[in-house]
From TrEMBL:
It is found in: Membrane. One of its GO terms (molecular function) is lipid-linked peptidoglycan transporter activity. GO terms for biological process: cell division; regulation of cell shape. One of its GO terms (cellular component) is cell division site. This is Cell elongation-specific peptidoglycan biosynthesis regulator RodA. The chain crosses the membrane at residues 36-58, 64-82, 89-110, 130-151, 163-180, 186-202, 207-228, 308-325, 337-355, 375-396. It comes from Coriobacterium glomerans (strain ATCC 49209 / DSM 20642 / JCM 10262 / PW2). It holds the Pfam family FTSW_RODA_SPOVE. Keywords: Cell shape, Membrane, Transmembrane, Transmembrane helix. It is a multi-pass membrane protein.
């Protein structure tokens, strides 16, 4: 009978142990991080950095170093959020709504308030001198707040009273933001919160009735706004002239060829002129010549489309679809209802912002000041979007059973 040399047996045993350690390391990594969420988000951040760098070549307001600072802080925040387990916040709904209100009104606190382009919506952080837009953080806090309330019903809302209670609590931050004249942010918060409420177990007929009621209220607001505007002027109107013009232009772009209609026309020209392959880096003539307003923020998709063409725009949408579908997968696999609803809210926030920002650049949605996540210039938005990614990763790490 032949025997294998002892050193050969020893080598085989060592190789098996090494393989087991490698396999265990891979499994441990996959338990800690969702690779698809991480890769897609980092790809979007990198793509956004490239777009803002090209914008900075011709647009002084698009400060590339400032955007890099936002990315750096955002990545640090992402890691910090990823390592923390947020499940205990499900019992702190009162604390969350108080934080929400404080954040919403913080730009009006003397000593903190900071105005940009004639608008008061930022705070200046003492000592370090950096500015931050608190309403960006409100989006995340509101998602957590509504998720904490929704999780109490264990996936089924039995009575209209409970449903109306949830809707009423969501209305608190939404109306507070509207009162401060930030309609775009209010719509994002409303959409993300509404998605959470629906996924909390609301019945379809209640949701459809709410949509019909909102449509009626919007019509009433528009009618009342017209009366107040004619009687007291724009200062006392519920909806400012520029906001009304954006809605009118969406229905008929020829209504305002020097204002919102002009912006839409220039965005459409930029998107169309990019063709299939684009004009290349620095070739965005609409932005370079100053025809495309706010090219680095509101109309960044038009800028991107002009420089990188259909291919670049398609790649961007593929990356967003990858990130959103990956986050949905995390939500589906999550074993904690509160964290599942938080993940769903983040998905709703990303989906609406992408749909609205891209849609307004091609005439499918009204023009608003809603940024394109990870792409638009702005440190506040970048930091919060990175935190949202960290939150999804935290959910994967602590609440997905494998």
């Amino acid at each position: 009978m032949a025997y294998a040399p002892s050193h050969a047996v020893s080598s085989q045993g060592s190789l098996k142990r090494v393989n087991r350690r490698i396999s265990s390391s891979k499994n441990s990594w996959r338990r800690q991080v969702s690779p698809s969420v991480l890769v897609s988000s980092l790809a979007l951040i990198s793509y956004g950095a490239l777009v803002i760098w090209t914008a900075s070549l011709s647009i002084p307001e698009a400060s590339f170093p400032r955007q890099l600072l936002g990315i750096g802080i955002g990545l640090i925040a992402m890691v910090g959020v990823w390592r923390f387990d947020f499940r205990n916040l499900a019992n702190l709904s009162t604390v969350l709504i108080v934080i929400d209100i404080i954040l919403i009104f913080s730009p009006y606190v003397p000593g903190l308030s900071y105005s940009a382009k004639g608008m008061t919506g930022w705070i200046k952080i003492p000592l370090i001198g950096l500015t931050f837009q608190p309403v960006e953080l409100v989006k995340i806090v509101t998602i957590m707040f509504i998720s904490a309330l929704g999780a109490q019903y264990n996936g089924k809302i039995d009575t209209v009273r409970d449903y109306l209670k949830l809707c009423g609590m969501l209305a608190v931050p939404v109306l507070a933001i509207i009162a401060l004249r930030d309609l775009g942010s209010a719509i994002i918060v409303l959409f993300a919160g509404a998605i959470v409420i629906m996924m909390s177990g609301a019945k379809k007929e209640w949701v459809l009735s709410t949509i019909a009621l909102l449509a009626g209220l919007i019509s009433l607001v528009l009618a009342t706004n017209s009366i107040m505007h004619s009687m007291f002027g724009d200062h006392f109107a519920l909806i400012k002239d520029y906001q009304m013009n954006r809605l009118l232009v969406f229905m008929d772009p020829s209504k305002d060829t020097s204002g919102a209609g002009y912006n839409l026309q220039q965005a459409l020209i930029a998107v169309g002129s990019g063709g299939f392959f684009g004009k290349g880096i620095g070739g965005a003539s609409q932005a370079v010549s100053g025809f495309l307003p706010e090219a680095q923020t509101d109309f960044v998709f038009a800028l991107l489309s002009e420089e990188f063409g259909f291919i670049g725009a398609f790649l961007l949408l593929v990356l967003f679809a990858w990130l959103i579908l990956s986050a949905i997968r995390v939500a589906v696999k999550t074993d904690n209802l509160f964290m599942k609803l938080v993940c769903v809210g983040i998905v709703g926030m990303w989906t609406f912002q992408v749909f609205e920002n891209v849609g307004m650049c091609i005439g499918l949605m009204p023009i608003t000041g809603i940024p394109l996540p990870f792409i638009s210039f702005g440190s506040s938005s970048m930091i919060i979007q990175c935190m949202a990614v960290g939150l999804v990763q935290s959910i994967w790490r602590h609440h997905v059973s494998r």
